[in-house]
Specification:
Largest interface: A-B, 3 and 3 residues
Order of helices and strands of chain A: HEHHEEHEHEHEEEHEE
Protein name (chains A, B): Auxin response factor
Subcellular location (chains A, B): Nucleus
Subunit structure (chains A, B): Homodimers and heterodimers.
Oligomer: homodimer
Number of strands of chain A: 10
Organism (chains A, B): Dichanthelium oligosanthes
Function (chains A, B): Auxin response factors (ARFs) are transcriptional factors that bind specifically to the DNA sequence 5'-TGTCTC-3' found in the auxin-responsive promoter elements (AuxREs).
Number of helices of chain A: 7
Chain lengths: ~230, ~230
DNA sequence: TTGTCGGCCGATCGCCGACAA
DNA sequence: TTGTCGGCGATCGGCCGACAA
């Protein structure tokens, strides 16, 4: 999975420790977030420490195949008794400030409105997104139109018709958008992330809304997913 | 699952031994039909007998939730050494002839044509099926029309518009048929079974064609299913 | 600047009788 | 008797500008 798109989908509230960082592992918190209920025997729970000092030895950025939701697998090794609690390796350099980190690419997130998700297959593109993320439009044409090709977290390419029209003028995605909404099963309230990669390539990611629960309407099969950041 | 619909879906080529019947179990044949490849160690295979005399102690009629394909779970217990190889209980009564069996209900199976499966959402009902399985039509009306309600193996009810029209006149299912084909993912070559239950209630079952393999066209998810009798 | 609405046009769905096998 | 076809009317998807928040 493209690391930059992963970070944009996860959002700025989410930080992932680098390999070598010293962290604390909270078994209680981990158990509470597990999808299956973890029921530790009372005796074991009594002996369980509230947190464990660990070192990050591996990080893998991943995404759910069906829902596109992003998550990370972080491998931890407990610090040995007496081992100093300090970052090592790459993590030691940027102590707090992440200015040494690679350049952050331009990205834009928008929460889908009713019109974006339900109505006649169109998506209102905020001006900022159209001007900084999408390829430059030729405004001399009447109306200005182009095709935008965007890859999702799995590397699958989607095509959208990007047009600048209406009075007053505004940017819209028309042809291709409806298909994307249906295939990804997007609803109003979900968010979409556009990102301009290094070589100008456009990427598209999702951030699904937290819902009360997956209220299956029709008899269609669908994977319920409870996620949150 | 309704036992009569189950039998109609399985077809007349399929017989299921009753509880108490003495049967032979063929491990080799069972292994060859298993969905996962069964690879017995050579040593074990050498010692395995070609067949085992057993008694049927339980039979369960079942159907796949997604594909509606029917199958049976038959519980076998090996005969003890010296135990006579003969049917006991219910199975002993009808030695060969099944005339003691309960009355067989009227049923009809038809293989779907291209027109049934692909074209404008209609199904050509053979006259015999319309006259013996469906509720009696009021031919005084112009045109004669009624709604037919049919339950599938899971007990789900489907509604079809049954009309007698055209020149020459013929029986057709129109409204509701297209939806059924799509939901059940039926294709030309698959068969449909209509059955008239005891109280006149109509039941509908499926018999899917053996295909070369499930050639997934679109990006849609679908459960591949290899079945045969 | 952009969310929602009604209009409208074209594509598709699905019901129909005509024919022929 | 019934499988396939072309016709055609109703419905729906989806692109559009108008307007207002």
């Amino acid at each position: 999975v493209n690391a930059q798109l992963w970070l944009a989908c996860a959002g700025s509230m989410c930080t992932v420790p680098p390999v070598g960082a010293a962290v604390y592992y909270f078994p209680q918190g981990h158990a509470e977030q597990a999808s299956a209920a973890v029921d530790l025997p009372a005796a074991a729970a009594m002996r369980l420490p509230p947190f464990v000092a660990c070192r990050v030895v591996a990080v893998r950025f991943m995404a759910e195949p069906l829902t596109d939701e992003v998550f990370a697998k972080i491998r931890l090794v407990p610090l040995r008794p007496g081992e100093p609690v300090a970052d090592v390796g790459d993590a030691a350099a940027g102590g707090g400030g992440d200015d040494k980190q690679q350049h952050k690419p331009a990205s834009f997130a928008k929460t889908l409105t009713q019109s974006d998700a339900n109505n006649g297959g169109g998506f209102s593109v905020p001006r900022f997104c159209a001007e900084t993320i999408f390829p430059e439009l030729d405004y001399r044409a009447e109306p200005p139109v182009q095709s935008v090709y965007a890859r999702d977290v799995h590397g699958v390419e989607w095509t959208f018709r990007h047009i600048y029209r209406g009075t007053p003028r505004r940017h819209l995605l028309t042809t291709g958008w409806s298909n994307f909404v249906n295939k990804k099963k997007l609803l109003a309230g979900d968010s979409i992330v556009f990102l301009r990669g290094e070589n100008g390539r456009v990427h598209v990611g999702l951030r699904r809304a937290k819902r009360a629960f997956c209220v299956g309407g029709g008899g269609d099969e669908g994977a319920a997913s409870l996620s949150g950041w």
